[in-house]
Design a protein that fits this description.
By secondary structure, this protein is mainly alpha-helical. It has helices spanning 80-85, 88-98, 113-134, 140-146, 156-168, 179-189, 195-205, 211-221, 225-236, 242-269; strands spanning 5-10, 15-20, 30-32, 48-51, 54-57, 61-64. The strands form two sheets. The chain has a three-stranded mixed beta sheet, with helices on one face. A three-stranded antiparallel beta sheet has the order 4-5-6, with no helix packed on it. The longest helix has 28 residues, at 242-269. This is DUF2877 domain-containing protein.
Length: 270
């Protein structure tokens, strides 16, 4: 439970259902409620019962689905034209400049020895994934090395993989052929990470994104320079460092996509 979000566990589905305050954007497996915080609404130990019409919590709370407007995650894919025309390198440079002094462990510059070691391992893992893909090798071991690596409810390694998959595994992207490798890596590496983080990564692998993430991808693919910085800012605000870790993965996916796009252009001109 957080001040503006509450995660409810669904044991049969092995999923989390999240109640969100009205300040948050929509997301998969969630319901936004017209309240600013949950601090005084819930008590430890209250029972939760799901039904087709709503959720009963404790003995005095009922959330009625019949009064909710349904939100569907955006369906996003990439075309061959977008692959060749999106300014991938510019987006990579812009994103990296926006998170240069962020609290992402991928950008860590402090003197905490534990965080320094984590940052080193994170950098090694991301580089191993990029190198494997560039050389058409199996990236599964490198992907598995990032799962659960970091601190917090969604470790930095998982957040990087979420950001990377947002771009590189889009339907229609040549990199989508590597999506099964991450699915296998998550299946074997799932015990190393948190339930919330594993579920978030699974949603991204199914192309199910929260509202601000979907808006960001659409803005990036449309080369909308006026809207990209506000879209980046919304991603940065996800969690304490999760958004910045995701942006590291997005920047790497943009750089790798630029190389793939150039390769395709050369192929077309042969």
């Amino acid at each position: 439970m957080f001040r503006r979000a509450v995660n409810l566990y669904q044991p049969q589905q092995q999923q989390l259902f999240t109640l969100l305050s009205q300040e948050y954007d929509n997301g998969p497996n969630s319901c936004r409620i017209a309240t600013t915080h949950f601090n005084t609404l819930f008590r430890p130990g209250e029972t939760v019962a799901f039904s087709p019409h709503g959720i009963a919590i404790g003995t005095d709370k009922w959330i009625d689905y019949t009064h909710c407007a349904i939100w569907h995650p955006p369906v996003i894919s990439i075309t061959r034209e977008e692959l060749n025309t999106v300014c991938w390198r510019s987006w990579q440079q812009l994103i990296n400049s926006e998170i240069r002094y962020s609290n992402s462990l991928f950008k860590y510059r402090g003197d905490n020895l534990f965080h320094q070691q984590l940052a080193t391992l994170l950098q090694q893992g991301r580089q191993a994934i990029i190198t494997s893909i560039k050389n058409n090798l199996d990236p599964t071991p490198a992907m598995r090395s990032l799962i659960g690596l970091g601190i917090g409810l969604t470790p930095s390694g998982d957040d990087w993989l979420c950001g990377f998959s947002m771009i590189f595994f889009l339907p229609g992207h040549p990199g989508e052929k590597y999506r099964p490798f991450l699915i296998d890596a998550l299946a074997s590496g799932k015990p190393k990470t948190t339930l919330l983080s594993a579920i978030t990564l699974e949603h991204h692998l199914q192309h199910r994104y929260r509202e601000h993430v979907g808006e960001f991808i659409t803005t990036l693919l449309s080369n909308n320079r006026q809207a990209i910085k506000p879209a980046i800012q919304k991603i940065k605000e996800i969690g304490s460092s999760s958004g910045c870790d995701m942006l590291c993965g997005i920047a790497d996916a943009c750089a790798l996509t630029a190389e793939i796009g150039e390769h395709y252009v050369r192929q077309d001109s042969d």
